[in-house]
Design goal:
Elements (H helix, E strand, L loop, with lengths): L6 H4 L3 H4 L4 H12 L3 H19 L9 H10 L6 H6 L14 E6 L8 E3 L5 E4 L5 E2 L2 E2 L3 E6 L6 E8 L5 E6 L2 E7 L3 E5 L4 E6 L26
Antiparallel strand pairs: 1-11, 2-3, 4-5, 6-7, 6-10, 7-8, 8-9
Protein name: HNH endonuclease
Organism: Leptospirillum ferrodiazotrophum
């Protein structure tokens, strides 16, 4: 068959199989001889973490990725970080997993550079010289209760401030623009991280494993 391969081709040495294309052969051989530094670093870090956890004296359970996937498939669970953690090792069943969980993302504390650049490096705008306006600064978590106008409602999330006093709030469902600082109440000062609650979905997403009746006695699980 044109473009296919046969069992005899699969059993031939790569040098013989690619004898007519030496450039391709040399590229493949060079990659085959390259050291797996990245994989070695990941494995070393994994085992160092494992030994550090064992040193605490607490029960620690590990398992292969294949077993984790097998447990998740058998229990008909969507693929999420939280549910993958719950499916590690010996698991008979998981109850109460379809709940939202807290997602934490590093957002930084702003930028020293106060000039915005376009894709070509030319200035396209500038930021104010002070980060705080009306007692708020970008990254704070706020609760805004708007009682009149088109934006009537209650919004909670990460705020982006403006010197005009018209703020944007990043909520779990999107960005709400044009919220007055007078309607905002501070919940938490900016600490370099963004927090949001994500519901679980059938195709994956955030999730939380709460109850593991089949869990080995004394073995703790990570909560998402």
């Amino acid at each position: 068959m044109k473009g296919g391969s046969t069992s005899s081709e699969g059993n031939r040495p790569v040098g013989e199989f690619l004898a007519k294309t030496p450039e391709r052969l040399s590229t493949i051989l060079a990659r085959a001889k390259a050291p797996l530094k990245d994989a070695a670093a990941v494995n070393t870090t994994r085992w160092a973490l494992f030994q550090a956890l064992k040193a605490t004296g607490l029960p620690v359970e590990t398992a292969s990725g294949g077993r984790t996937k097998s447990n998740r498939t058998r229990l008909v669970l969507p693929k999420t970080h939280a549910l993958d953690a719950a499916c590690v090792g010996k698991v008979d069943r998981i109850e109460g997993w379809n709940r939202p969980c807290l997602s934490v993302k590093a957002t930084g504390r702003g930028s020293y550079r106060r000039t915005r650049l376009d894709a070509f490096g030319f200035p396209r705008g500038s930021l104010t010289r002070t980060k705080a306006h009306f007692g708020f600064q970008t990254g704070d978590r706020v609760l805004a209760i708007v009682t009149k106008g088109k934006k009537t409602g209650t919004y909670a999330g990460r705020v982006a401030v403006r010197s005009s006093g018209s703020f944007n709030i990043q909520t779990g469902s999107g960005v709400v623009q044009g919220i007055s600082y007078k309607d905002c109440r501070l919940l938490q000062r900016a600490d370099g991280y963004g927090y949001s609650i994500h519901p679980i979905t059938e195709k994956g997403g955030a999730g939380e494993a709460l109850s593991l009746p089949g869990m080995n006695a004394g073995v703790s699980r990570a909560r998402g």
